Amino acid sequence: MRSNVLTCICAVMVATGFAAGQEPAFEVVSVKPQTGPRFGGVRSASRFYEPSVFLRYLVEFAYDLPPFRVLGGPDWVDRDRWVVDARTAAPVPADEMRLMVRRLLRDRFGLRAHLESHEQPIYELHLAREDGKLGPGLRPARGADNAFPTGKTTTAATQPVGMTAGTVSPSAGGGSVTVTFRAAPLSALAAHLERVLKRVVSDETGLTGMFDLELMYFYEGVVLSRPSLGQLAKEKESPVLFTALREQLGLKLEPSRGAADVLVIDSVERPNAD
Q: Region 39-48: what's the mean pLDDT?
């Protein structure tokens, strides 16, 4: 198993035409400590606005990594909140926006970081059946013909990755989650599973190309909203993740060990407010 963090980072640089250390920059940037009320942020093709954000989250976003793959840094990177308002001169793709945030971190926070390979517990994603048959919720991409057994469809047929989360109850400690991918590689599913399981997931299925996918499972980790009693009863019928993967997608997760890349923060500084 080879971790894909370094591969993904290099791929983004190549795809956007920028070399490491030469990331594009925002046209206008404001960074200051968060002291007032917290309002909702804005993410668009021309603006990155976070009104109350931890530095570590900015690093995770900039390098497209889950939290457990970003290590190091002083205590304040998880404690101090910042107001970041950055705008581009013209709309840019999502990958280029990440590179701009990476540049912002280097220029304004003095971020210095490096990749290391760590031996650690991982999961390997395999086909569940010996004959290789896939489940009803996983199939090669079909474009507009994308109805699944639930009867649900999406109007965003060209959207590479999408996720809709069902209601989650604080008292229940979890809730039903529906994940839908459209014309996405299985590496997108592996990335989603990494964030849920907080462990590296290596795609060992051997499946290539783009897939449409719908996965529904019961998750016991996040409070999203308060459901009605009827909704809560329905959610309890959702299978746990490992069962859902096997029954709905024809895939399984097997525990293993392997080397995985993590990003280590070497140094960082509080910026001057502006």
A: 88
